[in-house]
TrEMBL record:
Pfam families noted in UniProt: ACP_syn_III_C, FAE1_CUT1_RppA
Gene Ontology annotations of biological process type: cutin-based cuticle development; fatty acid biosynthetic process; plant epidermal cell differentiation; response to cold; response to light stimulus; very long-chain fatty acid metabolic process
EC number: 2.3.1.-
Name of the protein: 3-ketoacyl-CoA synthase
Amino acid sequence: MAREQALLLTEIVNRGVEPSGPDAGSPTFSVRVRRRLPDFLQSVNLKYVRLGYHYLISHGVYLATIPVIVLVCGAEVGSLSRDELWRKVWGEATYDLATVLAFLAVLAFTISVYIMSRPRPVYLIDFACYKPADELKVSKAEFIDLARKSGKFDEDSLAFQSRLLAKSGIGDESYMPRCVFEPGTNCATMKEGRAEASAAMFAALDELFDKCRVRPKDVGVLVVNCSLFNPTPSLSAMIVNHYKMRGNILSYNLGGMGCSAGVIAVDLARDMLQASGAGLAVVVSTEAVSFTWYAGKRRSMLIPNAFFRAGCAAVLLSNRRRDFHRAKYQLEHIVRTHKGADDRSFRSVYQEEDEQRIKGLSISRDLVEVGGHALKTNITTLGPLVLPFSEQILFFAGVLFRHLFPSKTSAPPPPSADGDASAAAPYIPDFKRAFEHFCMHAASRDVLEHLQGNLGLRDGDLEASRAALHRFGNTSSSSIWYELAYLEAKGRVRRGDRVWQLAFGSGFKCNSAVWRAVRRVRRPARSPWLDCVEQYPARMNA
């Protein structure tokens, strides 16, 4: 019972002055109870720590044996004097030409096999984010006004969406297709969906091909992800047709995978580059807002209306070694977590019809809790791959202690002598020692605040996420790229910096991608942030 209460967050809401009735003229208040993100670092599952160390060991076994070999050989050589070593190598040993040539041939063959069998590194050459036209901008007040004029919502539904917008963290310059506000029409038509998707994808791809000086016919792998709009022919086929790409291109279309699909698409593109040797891959992440729009009365399905906004990102990847000199980043790790085996996680984000058979995306009250558990699993697996050794020792010792002595950690820690109740709290790894930059999915202001508190991050660490949410809203799977574009526009990415992209979405899934900057990234000449980046972060606090 105490554990369940710890996941609840209460707040007192001022409802204003009672207009009528026996209490007319008196102020009224209500108590709102919500679920908070579980403190996932307080309840780490040991099997996920083992999984992370398994990844680490499987990739680092050769590096671990090299110091041992060097140590043994060094001890053997160190026991001999200089004259003895010279005599053993040249005086006592006898060599013939055949032996020397055979040794060199075996050595060359071994080195060649090792180099050829190693997976090639995957580079991010560049990316582009779609910036819609100014006529698609919509403020929070205009959103409610247009929704009221459409005649699709009653006053209770409008008031609920207005409250969501007020605390969403979204500013007054995000973008939405105007078709959702047209009265008496169904905006989720194939024509509207294709028009919205093609405008976003083609604009982002045009900019990407122009920036990278790459012809569409040079692309060997194409991966497109869009969760709710999946026409026939597919979105990937639309791109192939529009740019007249080559006939043997490996194209994939990912649907229904939510806001975390951008990382999944990168993972698939990486695997296909390694398997096929195609050279260049393009990843396109977008969402059709007209298909997330809901014109009914069920509150759980009205939530996406207030948060989702138009956006798209196109990314060019390469595993050609010659592209290292023009690449911006190198992909280091991808860790994917899927909680779909749990029924609550599976139904936390669920597309369905309401009582009036109006289709929409339903957001469960369990979303924050199941999202927290997915984050806990993902971060626990990622930690051993990225954290410094000192942080791993302290973190693993804390986890091991809580599993060996559960009785001492099940109860809340007693306050210390100076009144600090956190003296016995478990050690929280300092992820700021592993990453210089954080790009966490800009779902909402509340989610970002909970993430910041649980991971012990500073306000500046999530500046890019909050800025992307304020300026562009929740752009689904492309939001992590708008955040990286913000960091580049600020000129903050330097050579050797590591960037953590974290996204989560329906299923329930949580995915992480870790990039390392291979050079200093200069401020781009083309970016969706160029006209407003200097106004942030001050603009968010205005």
